[in-house]
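batch job 7 of whatever, protein = Bet v I/Major latex protein domain-containing protein
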Amino acid sequence: MKGEKSQDTVVGVPASVVWSAYRGLELGKIVSEVLGDVIGKVELVEGDGGVGTIMKLTFPPGTPGKGYLTEKFIIVDDEKRIKVTETIEGGFKDLGFAAIRIRLEIIEKDGESSIVRSTVEYEVDDERAMRVSLISTKHLELMAEGVGKYLSEKKSTA
């Protein structure tokens, strides 16, 4: 079974600014700093922020499961402002999902705001199909809101 869940979040920052934060390693730094208690701590395992980069997200205490996931950047498209990561260990992989990919697309809304389209793509065998209800975009929505607020405040103090 394959499927996806998607969420659009409007942020009050131009798409070029949001993309510069989302495209590489800065996103992990912002998430750790601003949303560490909600989403978790992000660490670089290997890479420079381009395709092939591996990051580890350690969830906050009390999160069910192993408490972490490791993901690999598989697409970083500067022209289309799309980044796709794939979970390679932990997270939903531990629940039997064959594949979990996060697709982040930054869409220009107007000169002062943009849309962060966050999509979770999944593959799971029919025996575990009931676990699809566990898939949510809520953490990606929180991330978009937190990063947008951070970038907006950073812009206003610059």
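notes: The longest helix spans residues 138-157.
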